[in-house]
Amino acid sequence: MSRFVRASKYRHIFGQPGKKEYAVDNVKLTNSAWDTNMLAASGRYLSINWLSSGGGAFAVLPLPSPFKPLPNNLPWKLPDIIPLARGHSAPVLDTAWSPFDDSLVASGGEDGNILIWKIESNAFEGWGHEKFEPVDFDPVARISASPKRIGQLLFHPAANHVLASATGDHTIKLWDLERSDDPRITLGGHGDTIQSMDWNWAGTLLVTTSRDRKIRLFDPRASTDAVRVADGHAGIKSVRAVWMGQSDRIATTGFSRQSDRELAIWDAGSLDNVRKLVVDQSAGVLMPFWSDNQVLFVAGKGDGNIRYYEYENDNFVALAEYKSTDPQRGLCFLPRRALAVSECEIARAYKVSGSIVEPIAFVVPRKSDSFQADIFPPALSAEPALSAAEFFNGKKAAPNVQNLETGAIAPSSNSFGPGAAAPAPTPSYTAPTPTPAPKIVEPTPAPAPAPVRQESIPSAPTKNGGALQENSRLTRLNSGATFSKPPTE
C-alpha cells in the first residue's frame, strides 16, 4: 500500500442526516414504476409525486433542513389529508422547479399534459391544527403537450421560462411558457423511450439517453436532429446522463451486458468514451447528481448508500460513501445557492424511503467558523441571463452565478458554456456583414483522453401540437401572481 494519500479538500466529506423530527413522515409516494427521481427541490419547496385516487397529483412541502425543525411550524408527521397539486387525469411522472423562481413548478403526467403551478407561502398556514381544512393548489397554465405521457421535464439553466419535455412519442419539445401555443422546437431521432436529458452549462447543447442504448447530443437552435450519436452502455436497463458543470465532459450511469453497474465519462465534442468504470453488480438504477465542487454524487434506487466521487484528470476518484439501511425510492439535490454555508454544507440531498423524506447534508469538516471560500465556488443564481424570446432568437449568454459569501451576482466566466467546440454550432441570428465575424476564444480543452479502458472503482476508505390554455391569464405567471388559499369558515 502506498504511504502517500492523495491531497483533496473533499477527502473527509461525510453525510449528516437530520434528526428524526427534522424529517417528514407520513409521505404517500406514488406507486408508479416510471423511472424518475420521484421528488424535486427548489430553494424553498419540495415536490413529491403523490399516491392519489381520481387522477394524478403531487405534494408541495416547505423545504426541510437537516439543521433545524420544519418551517411554518409544520408537524414532522404530516396529516393524513394535505393540500395537493391536482389537475392531471393520470399519475404525475415528473416535476421540475424553475431555477429563477422558487415558487414556480411544472408537472408532467401520463395524460400527456404539462401543468404550471405557482405556490404561495401562506398555503401552509394551519397545517396540523384541529380545524385545518386542506385546499388543493390550482395550476396557472396547462399545456396539452402530447397524446402520450410526459416522462421528464427540465428548465433551461440560463433562459427564463424555457422548458424541455420528453414525451412518450420519443421526442423532446422546447416550450416558451410566456407566449407560445405550440412547442418552439421539437427534437427527434430517438428510437425508443427517452430516459434522461440535461443541458450544458450555458444551455446551448442538450444531451439525451434513450432505451435504444444511444447517447445523443443536440444543438436545438441549429438542428432538430442530433449532431452527435454514440453507442452508450450495453445493458438494457435505464441510462442517466448529467453534464459536468462548465467542462466539456458528460457523465453517464448505466449497465454492462453482464449487468454490472457502470459509470462513464464522455467527451461532449466528439461523444467519444473517455473512461468507463464498474461500480458494482446491484440491480437498482443509478442516479447521478453533479456538484460544481467537481464532485459527482451517485445513488442507486433500492440502495441505502450514496457514493461520491471527485473528478480529476478524466477520472472519478472515490471519496467516501454515505451508508444507510433504509433503501431509497427517490432522491434529489438542493440548488447550491440555498446551502447552509455556515455549516460547511457543500451539498444537500433529499431522500425518500418508505413514508419518510429525509434531508442529508454533505459536510466538509473545518475548524474555522469563517466562510470557506475554497469549498464554495460560485453557485448558479436565481437571476436569468436571457429571456425566452432571446434564447429562441439565438442569443447566447452564460448563466449568472452568485457568490455564496456576499450574495453578489455576476455572469459566469464561460460565455458560451462547455462544448463550444461542438460539431454543429448554433447559427448566427444577426444580420450578415462583409467583415469576418470575430473569433470566439475557446476554453482550454481537456487533456487528450487516454485509451478507453474498463476498470473497477476502488472501494472508499471505510395530444399533438399542444395549445397553451390559461386558467386565468398566462400573464399571471410573469406578474408573480400566486394562488391564495380560500379563507376557512
What would the keywords be for this entry?
five-stranded antiparallel sheet, 2 helices, globular, five-stranded mixed sheet, mainly beta, disordered C terminus, 489 residues, Methylamine Dehydrogenase, Chain H, single chain
Structure summarized in a few sentences:
Helix content is 2%, strand content 36%.
Please tell me about this protein's structure.
The protein is an all-beta fold and 489 residues long. The protein has a five-stranded antiparallel sheet, with no helix packed on it. Strands 18-19-20-21-32 form a five-stranded mixed sheet, with no helix packed on it. The C terminus is likely disordered.
Q: What is the fold's blueprint, element by element?
A:
Elements: E1 14-17, E2 39-41, E3 45-50, E4 56-62, E5 85-88, E6 92-97, E7 104-109, E8 113-118, E9 139-144, E10 150-155, E11 162-167, E12 172-176, E13 185-187, E14 194-199, E15 206-210, E16 214-218, E17 228-231, E18 240-243, E19 249-255, E20 261-267, E21 273-280, E22 286-291, E23 295-300, E24 306-311, E25 316-322, E26 330-333, E27 345-353, E28 356-363, E29 379-380, H1 388-392, E30 400-402, E31 409-411, E32 454-456, E33 468-470, H2 475-479
Parallel strand pairs: 21-32
Antiparallel strand pairs: 1-28, 2-3, 3-4, 4-5, 6-7, 7-8, 8-9, 9-33, 10-11, 11-12, 12-13, 14-15, 15-16, 16-17, 18-19, 19-20, 20-21, 22-23, 23-24, 24-25, 26-27, 27-28, 29-30, 30-31
